[in-house]
Structure formats: C-alpha cells, structure tokens
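Slide 14.
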Amino acid sequence: MDKNMTAIFNEKKFLSNYNKAISQIDKIEEFANSLDINKIDKIFFVGSGGAFTKFVSMRPLIIELIPISNVITSPEELISLYIDEITEKSLIVFGTKTGETVELIDALNIIDKTKSNIKMIGFIGDENTSIDNQKIIFKRISSVDTDVHIILFGWLLISLNKKINQENKNQIKDELISIGQNISDILYNQKEILKNQVSERKIGTREMWVGSGRLWGEICCYTNYVLEEIQWIFSQPIHSSEFFHGPFELVDKNFVPNLVLNTDNNREQDLRVKKFIDSFEIKYILIDMKDFYLPYKYSETKKIVEPYILNHVFDILLNIYTESTGKSTKTRRYYRKIDY
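Slide 15: predicted structure.
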C-alpha cells in the first residue's frame, strides 16, 4: 500500500479505534437505563470546539428521540446563563478530547460544589486526564480518538428513548457494531477521489463551505477548527438555506464555495446551491454523501453514521491539506503556546 495514501487514511488505525469505542456499547445502555429518563426535566449538552459542533450535528436526532427540554451550550454559558436552571432533575452531558479544557473543568467543579445529586455523563478522548483527576462524579465514556464519539453519542440517545422497544434497540446495536468495516471500506475507496479534487484547487486561499441538515455541525467544525485553527486558512460555514441571502454574491472565478450534499430532505436546497456554483464552470470540492451511502437497515443508524462518516472525510481532507502546507495538529501558533 502507498505510504502516502496510508497517511491520508489508515484503515487499520480507524478500525482499531472504532472497535475500541464500540466495545462500550453495552455499558452505555446500562448508563441510560440507570438514569430513569422520566425523572429528568432538562439536559445540558456541554462542550467547546469540536465537541460543541458534534452536539449540533446530532441536534435533529436529539429532538426526535429525547422529548425533554435541552440546550447545547459552552462551559462558560452553562454557568453564566443556565446555572439557576440546573437542579437534581438535570442531566449534563459533556465532551472533550483532551480532558484538559480549563473552562470545562471550572464549570464542572462549580456545579459539583454548588449543586447536589447532579447526573453527569462525560465523553472524553484521552485517558488519565485532568477531568478524571477531579473529585467530580460522572459516568465516563471513552471517545478514543475524538471529543464526542458520534456513534456512541447516538447510541446513548437511542438507549435513553423509551418508545423504541428493546428488540429494535438490539437490532440497531448489532448494526452499529458490525458497520465499522463498511465505513472503513467506503472511506478508503473515496480517499483518492478526494485527493484529486483538492489537487485542482489552490490551497491557502479563503474558503467557504456550504451544507445543511444533519451534516451542518461537522461543516462548522471543519471550517472553524480545522481550516482556521490548524491550517490557518480563513474560512466560513454557510448554511445552504442561507446561501442565497447574501453569501452567493461573493462567488466568482476567484472565489468558489465548496459543497456538501445531503442524502435526505435537505438535498434539494443543497442541489440549488450546486446548480448556481456549476454555472461558473470552475473547480470546487464536492462531497456528495450519496457516494458514501451504506445499505442501512434502520433509519436511526443512518442518522448517526452519516455525520460520523463526514467527520472522517474531513479528517482525510486535513491530511491531504497537511501534505501541501506542512501544517497539522502539531503546528500551532498560540494554542498551548502562550497564556490567553
């Protein structure tokens, strides 16, 4: 196998991480069953950066499966805006890759000291982190290679839902357990296509990424926390339903938006953007999720897996960009370099 292509997407590492994460699926169901969702009146989904945007990607499924008042918020606003709303009937679900985010640690400690019997679940990517070393009581889920593992978070939502019967839950669980190889295969088959698309663009110029629906959070994550934070490329996410309310005026031969196409009900509004961009007869990066489609047995699986796949598509794009720019997660100017 070409070493460069392995660097872009490492199948062995992907499958190892997937299987390590999915091995917790029964534990997550036990967490959910122990909570008694009927006694919870508010859920706070808390994170910064990529953790925040992963919750945003899953917001449609949250609304569909969890008929409880909920909010996606940052650690700072959890305290400044919502502290008085947090009671013993609240559930806090937080996410972090490093477990070292000072704002999150401070917020959790404030809640632990000022509130009693608060139920908390934490998705944490690294092991033996500062959060783990606090005296905060929470149920820990290992995200393995990320901040909030979308597959595991989606399964938590399903496990909390009381309308899906146990037989159907078991069937969805079996599909999530077995689908890792299929995801790996389809990412492997698309990586060269993605590399060819990038090769037709000039890397380093400003970028706009357009998309919608269940994929929106991942698009925000890629523009803000990959292109800007890691690649130092000015970029902006634009929702396809907002594209024709201003941003389309920026498009010309020197500025081309990139586009992500949904497979669901949002596809038509995404295709309207595609038609406009295509009229300029210029090259752009197009990620059509139909090219990553898998024969899902259950709609819940599709709703969880598609944003997870897009997250890894963007990881592949980061690796392709890194080959050209030399910038990666290890090359930062300010992050953990200075006090801020």
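Speaker note: The longest strand covers residues 90-96.
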